[in-house]
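Sequence in, structure out.
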Amino acid sequence: MDFGPSGSGRMIVALVVLGILAILAWQTMEPGRYQSLTFILLGFFAFRVALGWLRSR
C-alpha cells in the first residue's frame, strides 16, 4: 500500500476510520435526529475521501 499523498493506502485508512466511527455512533447514540446527522456527516466525509482519491488517479 502506498501511503503517499495520492496513494490508495491513505484512502483505505480514512474509510476504515469513518466506518468505525459510524459503527460507534450506531452503537452508542439513540436513534433520532443527532444520529441521522452524524451518519450524513460521516457519509459526506467518506464521499469526499473517495472523490479526492478518484481525482488524484
